[in-house]
Specification:
Keywords: Isomerase, Magnesium, Metal-binding, Phosphoprotein. By secondary structure, the protein is of the alpha/beta class. The protein contains 16 helices and 22 strands. The chain folds into four domains: 151 residues, 3-Layer(aba) Sandwich (Alpha-D-Glucose-1,6-Bisphosphate, Chain A, domain 3); 91 residues, 3-Layer(aba) Sandwich (Alpha-D-Glucose-1,6-Bisphosphate, Chain A, domain 3); 82 residues, Alpha-D-Glucose-1,6-Bisphosphate, subunit A, domain 3 (Alpha-D-Glucose-1,6-Bisphosphate, Chain A, domain 3), CATH 3.40.120; 86 residues, Alpha-D-phosphohexomutase, C-terminal domain (TATA-Binding Protein), CATH 3.30.310.50. The chain has a six-stranded mixed beta sheet, sandwiched between helices. A five-stranded mixed beta sheet has the order 8-7-9-10-11, with helices on both faces. Helix 1 crosses helix 4, helix 7 crosses helix 13 and helix 10 packs parallel to helix 11.
C-alpha cells in the first residue's frame, strides 16, 4: 500500500503510479472521517478541479464517496480555479473545499488540496488530523452513480466560474482596466483559460495557451520566467501594457512589464505593499515566507508596518491572515494574498490588482518597479532547482546540519545561518537559502543580492560547495 503524505500544499503524486482512484479513495475517506469528527454528521463541501488529465473523473469519484456518506456536495460544473473554490467554501458556509489539482507540478502529476471553512488553505493542524485518519481509511465498496447523486440532489452542480468573476467585478476597477490597458494572458493550458477575456473583453486581451490540453504541451504549468518566453515576446509585439500568466489552478501569478521584462513575485509583493498602504491608506502586517525578499523588511520599517516571516508554504500565511490584521501576505513562488480579498493565493485577482495600480498611477510597470529601487535600493533574486537523487539530496542536507551551514559564499563571509525552513546563509550583502522541495524530489537554492551577478554567484558557489556537478534546471 502506497504511503500517502501531504506536502506544503496538499497531496500530490504521479497519475497511475501513486495517484490512482484507489489511493484517492483512501484520501477522500480520511477526509470524510475528519469532516464528521470536526463538523458533525452532515458536513457541507465544495469540490472543483483544474484541467489536468482525468481531473473531472477524479473529482466525481471524490463527490461519490462524500455524498454516499451524508456529506452535502456543491460541485463546479466545469474546470475551475483553486481560489474560486476557496471563495465558494466560505461564501456558501461550507466546512471544506476540495480541489483536484497538482498546481504547478509537471503534467504527469495530480493532487488533492483541502480548503478550510475560512476560505483559505487548511492549516497544518487540520492536515495532520486528516493524515491520522489515513492508516485504515477505505471508502464504501459500493458507491452510487454520479448522475444519480445529481438527480436526487445530494450533489449540486453550479456555475462557479461566473460567480467568481462577478466577485472580481465587485472588488476591482474592471471597467477602468479595460478602457486603459491591453493585457496578454497566458493560462498555461490551466484553469484560468478564458476568464480574463470574460472580464475585460476579448478585444482587450491577447490570449496564449487558453485551450484544453491536459498534458500542458509537456511543460509544467509554473509561471516562472523560463517557462514564459512566448508571453514576453507577445507583450512587446502586441504592445501590451502588462503580461500575466497563471499556473495550472490559477493561484499563482507571473507578470511581465511593457518591455517584456519578467517582474518577480518579490517585486509584485513590494508594489502591492506600496499601493495598498501609500495609495489606499490601508494598514496591517506584512507576512512573507522564508525565501521571500528582504526588501519587504525595509519597506515595513519605513512605513511602520510589522513584518513577520513564516516557513515556506502558503498555509502558514493563510493562518496568519485569519488570525490577525494582514495587509499583504506572499511567497517567492508567486502566491500572493492581500487585505480585502481572501486569505488565499489568487493569481487572477493579483494580476488584475497590479493592472488597476497601473491605471490609477498612470505609469508603466517598469517605472513603478524602478521607483521601488530608487527608494529602497536594488534587490535581485536568483533560484536554481537541483533535480537529483533522494540519496544525494539527503547527503547535502546532512552535511549542512553537521557543519552548521556554509562558512562563506562567493567570497562573502556568512555572519548568520537561519534554519526556520532550510538553511539560510546571511551575508553583509545578501543571502542564500538551501532547502528541499515539499512537493517534488529536488533541492532548491535561492539567493538575493544587490546585483544579478552576485545573486547568481551566490547560488552557483553554494551548489559547488554542496558537491553537485550535474547541470541544474533553473
Amino acid at each position: 500500500m502506497a504511503q500517502i503524505k501531504f506536502g506544503t500544499d496538499g497531496w500530490r503524486a504521479v497519475i497511475a503510479d501513486d495517484f490512482t482512484f484507489a489511493n484517492l479513495g483512501r484520501v477522500a475517506q480520511a477526509t470524510v472521517r475528519w469532516l464528521k469528527k470536526r463538523y458533525g454528521d452532515h458536513p457541507k463541501v465544495v469540490i472543483g478541479h483544474d484541467t489536468r488529465f482525468l481531473g473531472r473523473e477524479f473529482a466525481e469519484h471524490v463527490a461519490r464517496i462524500f455524498a454516499a456518506q451524508g456529506i452535502s456536495v456543491r460541485m463546479a460544473d466545469t474546470f475551475t480555479t483553486t481560489p474560486a473554490v476557496s471563495w465558494a467554501t466560505k461564501h456558501f458556509g461550507c466546512n471544506a473545499g476540495i480541489v483536484i489539482t497538482a498546481s504547478h507540478n509537471p503534467p504527469k502529476y495530480n493532487g488533492f488540496k483541502i480548503k478550510a471553512d475560512f476560505g483559505g488553505p487548511a492549516s497544518p493542524e487540520m492536515i495532520a488530523e486528516v493524515e491520522r485518519e489515513l492508516s485504515d481509511a477505505e471508502p464504501p465498496a459500493e458507491l452510487p452513480a454520479f448522475d444519480d447523486l445529481v438527480s436526487d440532489g445530494r450533489v449540486e452542480l453550479f456555475d462557479l466560474n461566473t460567480a467568481y468573476l462577478n466577485l472580481l467585478r465587485e472588488k476591482l476597477d474592471i471597467d477602468g482596466i479595460a478602457r486603459n490597458l491591453k493585457i496578454a494572458h497566458d493560462a498555461m493550458f490551466g484553469a484560468s483559460q478564458g476568464l480574463v477575456s470574460r472580464l475585460l473583453g476579448a478585444d482587450r486581451v491577447v490570449e496564449l495557451h487558453c485551450d484544453w490540453n491536459p498534458g500542458f504541451h509537456g511543460q509544467p504549468p509554473e509561471p516562472i520566467e523560463r517557462n514564459l518566453k512566448e508571453l514576453a515576446e507577445v507583450v512587446v509585439r502586441e504592445r501590451c501594457g502588462l503580461g500575466m500568466a497563471n499556473d495550472g489552478d490559477a493561484d499563482r501569478i507571473g507578470l511581465f512589464d511593457e518591455n517584456g521584462r519578467f517582474v518577480t513575485s518579490h517585486e509584485i509583493l513590494a508594489l502591492l505593499v506600496k499601493y495598498l498602504h501609500k495609495e489606499q491608506g490601508l494598514k496591517g502586517d506584512i507576512i512573507k515566507t522564508f525565501s521571500t525578499t528582504h526588501l519587504l523588511d525595509k519597506m515595513g520599517q519605513a512605513y511602520g508596518l510589522r513584518v513577520e516571516t513564516t516557513p515556506i508554504g502558503f498555509k502558514h500565511i493563510a493562518k496568519q491572515m485569519v488570525e490577525r490584521d494582514v495587509l499583504v501576505g506572499g511567497e517567492e513562488s508567486g502566491g500572493i494574498a492581500v487585505k480585502g480579498h481572501l486569505p488565499e493565493r489568487d493569481g487572477i485577482y493579483i494580476g488584475l490588482l497590479v493592472a488597476e495600480l497601473l491605471v490609477r498611477r498612470g505609469k508603466k510597470l517598469s517605472e513603478l518597479v524602478q521607483e521601488l529601487y530608487d527608494e529602497f535600493g536594488p534587490h535581485h533574486f536568483y533560484r536554481i532547482d537541483l533535480h537529483t537523487t533522494e540519496e544525494k539530496k539527503q547527503a547535502a542536507l546532512d552535511h549542512l546540519r553537521q557543519t552548521g551551514g556554509l562558512k562563506e559564499v562567493a567570497g562573502d563571509a556568512v555572519r548568520e545561518v537561519q534554519t526556520l525552513d532550510g538553511f539560510k546563509h546571511i551575508t553583509d550583502r545578501g543571502w542564500v537559502l538551501i532547502r528541499p522541495s515539499g512537493t517534488e524530489p529536488l533541492l532548491r537554492v535561492y539567493a538575493e543580492a544587490p546585483t544579478p551577478e552576485l545573486a547568481e554567484a551566490y547560488v552557483h558557489n553554494a551548489i559547488e560547495q554542496l558537491g553537485f556537478a550535474e547541470v541544474p534546471a533553473h
